[in-house]
Write a structure and sequence with these properties.
mainly alpha; 6 helices; 78% helix; 0% strand
Length: 120
């Protein structure tokens, strides 16, 4: 059984990074859960499930909106794309082995890190 305290800590860190960097927190949740020994598939499924109740996301979105740093129309359009894209991504992910899914996740994080470090 997954320890409740560990899950709360992962959630807190995901919330902090979500609000701080606008990453949605999923990267932190998946990383935390895989470090706890869960499979990549299980970690990703739990991460997606955690966002079914976006209370924390709404609060942090409001803070960005209040400061003039959010666009509701653009957010809604992206959300529409997320509906389609997340289904496609989940379909593909469930066809891959856990090791390949973990490797692709790592490559994704590495590419994003390199881009952020060396961007203009």
């Amino acid at each position: 059984m997954i320890e409740v305290l560990s899950l709360i800590i992962i959630g807190i860190f995901a919330g902090i990074f979500s609000g701080l960097f606008g990453i949605g927190g999923g990267v932190i949740i998946v990383l935390g859960l895989t470090l706890m020994g869960l499979s990549q598939h299980k970690a990703q499924g739990i991460s997606l499930g955690a966002f079914l109740i976006p209370i924390g996301i709404l609060i942090s979105f409001y803070e960005y909106y209040r400061n003039g740093n959010a666009d509701i129309k653009a957010s809604i359009i992206i959300a529409f794309g997320l509906i389609i894209g997340s289904y496609i991504g989940a379909f593909i992910a469930n066809k891959l082995s856990s090791i390949w899914l973990s490797r692709l996740f790592g490559i994704f994080l590495l590419v994003m890190a390199i881009r952020m470090i060396f961007k203009n």
